[in-house]
Amino acid sequence: MDPLTQGFAGAALPQAAVRRTGAATAGLLGFLAGMAPDLDVLIRSSEDPLLFLEYHRQFTHSLVIIPFGGALCALLLHPLLGRRRGLTPLTTWLCCTLGYATHALLDACTTYGTQLFWPFSDVRVAWNVVSIIDPLFSLPLALAVGLAARTGRRGFAVAGLCWALAYLGLGVLQREQARALGEALARERGHAPVEVVAKPGFANILVWKTVYRAEGRFFVDAMRTGWAPLQCPGESLAVLDRARDLPWLDPASQQARDVERFRWFSAGYVALAAPGSDRVIDIRYSLVPNEIDALWSLQLNRAAEPAAHGAYRVHRGDSQAALPRLWHLLWAADC
């Protein structure tokens, strides 16, 4: 999730659970600790553009690291906040650990992938039940945390946590409905049985992006769930075959290794941006669910030295044009 939502979730749990301190203090400690795991984005290299993909949501997000992450936050925050507000080191650690603990689990509810079981496994867990940014999830949670801090009534924090859990539960139901709609569309195309993956669209859990693999291609469609279900067929691209699509690429080169690193990061959902292109894209994300308009990619260079890395690219796209199309999918009677 976005950093502020992570902070609000981190604040709500110690506000609701720790009665040895005021809700404002517990919330502040939990808020800061709840955002702390994302400091791993600072692990970067000017020489290796993909390094941050390997470390973001890795060891700082592991379940086994939670008590140690909480301890490190407490070590920094107790002299600044905890001691000045009369807390014992143990109470500061408890608030920080509870706040830290919410982060990885909330991230795993999104689609990006979180290494919850590092160092035992590098599997990127993604439950696909909520968008990385979703105001309907975040704003009520933020309001509850603010009211708990202002009034000292922990019931507001409890209500905020209940809202968050209920919203995530609704996301699970919507995801399964989207998958069922996607499977039905695949059957209509003669692609059955296939595994359909459903991911929430941008900032909502009503319109979903479904992806499945059949006949050597990825098929990307949009499914609207809820009271007015709608299937909106989209685009398809050939699954990346390095030998076929990039015959010029030396398998022993660093760029070839970068392609495999990017494939791992993308959970295998990689394709060329277009036939003959030298750009490998992650097809999981786009502003409009039934379009293949990747938000990031790996740009290769045919003239590069064997030791040279590929270039990681972020594509913002034309959001002014995309958002009206997304709005249409949310509310219109047709695609």
UniProtKB/TrEMBL annotation:
TM segment ranges: 59-81, 93-113, 125-149, 156-173
Pfam families for the chain: YdjM
UniProt keyword annotations, A-Z: Membrane, Transmembrane, Transmembrane helix
Protein name (database record): Integral membrane protein
Organism per entry: Pseudohaliea rubra DSM 19751
